[in-house]
Structure formats: C-alpha cells, structure tokens
Amino acid sequence: MTKTVLKGAITSVAILAGAGMALAEGNLVINGDLELTTEAPAPSHIEGLTTVYSGWVFRDSFTQAMEMDDFDNPGMLFVDAGEDMWNEPAGTSGKACADCHGDASESMAGVRAVYPKWNEAAGEVRTLEMQINACRTENQGAEALKYGKGDIVSLEAYISMQSRGMPMNVAIDGPVADVWAQGKQMYYTRTGQLELSCASCHEENYGNLIRAETLSQGQTNGFPVYRIKDSVLTSAAGRFVGCVRDTKAETYKIDSSDFVALELYVASRGNGLSVEGVSVRN
Ligand code: HEC
Ligand code: HEC
Questions:
Q1: Confidence at 247, pLDDT banded by 50, 70, 90
Q2: Which of 21, 104, 192, 219 qualifies as a cystine partner to 247, CB 3.0-4.6 A?
C-alpha cells in the first residue's frame, strides 16, 4: 500500500502512516454458514485501487464479531421494524408495500445490489432511499420520509437483507454515465478548510489511523450500517454528511443531486463486494 503524506492545511487531522493495516484474520461468515466477499479485485473503472475491501475488514474483532451473528447484530432490530412497515398499509391508498410487491424475498432479491440505478420513467438516477420515497408518495399516497436515518433506513435494511451475499453490481454506463462522472469528480475534489477529498482518506490512506480509528476504503456495500458510537442505523448518504463535515466543508444537502452522483460513484467502487444486508461499524 502506498503511504501518502497529505497535502494541504492539515492541522487538526493527523493521519498516522505506517500504523499498518489490521487485515482481518478469517472471513466474514454470518451465522456460521453464509460467507460474504470482503475482498475482491478492483473493478476496471477504478484507477486508484487494485483490491477493494469491505469496511468490515478494518474494524476490531469485537465489532467484526457483532456482524457475524444475527442475534448479536443490533441492526437486525431495524430489519424487523422495516418488515413491519413493509406489511403495514400507509397513506391515502391504504396500501402496504406488500400489496404491490408481495413477498420481499422474491420481489426485492437483487435490488439492493444494483442501486443507485437509472429509472426510465422518471428520467433520473435514484438511490434506494429515493425509490422508497417515490413509492410512498406516488403509490401509497403517504408522506416522504427523511433521508439518512429512521424509518426509511429500516425499510432499506429490510430490502437490503433480501440481497445479502450478492455481489454489488451497479451500472456505470448508458444513461447514468454523466452522473457517474460527476460523482467521480466529486470524489477526487479537495474541499473545505482541510483541503481533503474522499480519496485523500479512503484511497490514499486506508489502513492508516486517523484519530485512533483505522481508515477503511469508504465502501458502501455494508449499508445500511449500524453505528455502535451512536446506536443508529445510517444510510450511505447519512454517512457521507459526516465525512464531508469532517473536512470542514459545507455539507451538501442529504437529498441533493450531488449526493446521488457521489453515492452512485462510490457504490461502483465496491462492485464485486457482497451486499452485507445490515452491517456493524464503530
Ligand atoms: C400501488 C403499488 C405500489 C406500492 C404500494 C408500492 N410500490 Fe414500490 N413499486 C411499484 C411499481 C409499479 C414499481 C416499478 C416497478 C418496476 O420496477 O418496473 C415499484 C418499484 C419499487 C422498487 C424498485 C424495484 C427495482 O427493481 O428497482 C422498490 C425498491 C420499491 N418499489 C419499494 C417499495 C416500498 C418499500 C414500498 C412501501 C413503502 C412500495 N414500494 C410500495 C408499485 C408500488
Ligand atoms: C478526514 C478523512 C476522511 C475524509 C476526507 C472522508 N472520510 Fe469517509 N470516513 C472517515 C472515517 C474516519 C470513517 C470511519 C472509519 C472508516 O470506515 O474509514 C469513514 C467512513 C466512511 C464510510 C463508511 C464505510 C463503512 O464500511 O462503514 C463511507 C461510505 C465513507 N466514509 C465515505 C466517504 C466519502 C464519500 C467521502 C468524500 C465525500 C469521505 N468519506 C471523506 C474519514 C474520512
């Protein structure tokens, strides 16, 4: 791994190079039988990496173990809440998600692995959160939910679980090509007082320590993520807000088209890694 000294006005952020990458011994096996892919050759559209790793690889053994058993994974409580919402009528239509989509284990299998994705009818790239809200407002006659955490992420968790173990496989060409390119540009643009880009931390310094935390590659295959730190289930967009804030830059609005582009690009960096359903991180 290359150890790069960060350029720019870094005062409050010290990244300790040479801390060494605490690569996990052993694999991510859930409930003793479902083995997930946490390390894969980097997709050819990613120039700065040769191997991609799930964030799980960089966590301590205690955090890793919590994700290896559904009884220990606090994210599973949110999955249960999401399942209840799936079956509960909502809005003026009086319809539940299940009334149109039936058994999620059939209708939603594979869905999480290909999002964000182009929606032909709407003529836009949609994150899974956007699609859930579109179904709520247009198909249920219910209010849109707030992005980042809460009910929408519980629904997302339930949907994601139906793809657990499937490889991320987000499309980057065709109608999404421009949005993908926008996301890529954002990823490498240094912003904020600290003049850091996503790549400064997650491409050039993964495996190194920052404020006593080991930097991962910032992959999104594990989302939604249960964060032990604040006991909340978070979506990828919710996580990005925190990372942007850490660079002391203006935070993009969580429901902005900028974040859709960034989410598409970051998801594509993890093509080949398993959807983890709901993961556990610090
Ligand atoms: C009145 C019927 C209806 C209801 C109720 C409904 N949806 Fe949908 N949903 C649709 C239709 C139609 C589509 C577009 C189908 C397609 O992909 O061609 C769709 C698409 C989706 C997709 C994208 C699937 C894919 O393959 O990309 C997701 C995810 C989804 N709905 C989730 C939900 C959730 C969660 C709820 C409840 C909060 C819900 N839907 C409620 C009709 C409905
Ligand atoms: C100052 C360094 C820094 C910058 C810049 C930064 N992050 Fe992070 N990011 C972190 C730290 C620390 C964590 C928590 C440990 C980890 O997973 O790396 C994290 C975690 C993440 C995670 C969660 C990974 C997982 O598996 O749970 C994602 C996704 C992420 N960052 C995306 C981004 C994106 C996108 C950008 C650019 C907008 C960005 N980060 C910029 C420091 C940074």
A1: confident
A2: 192
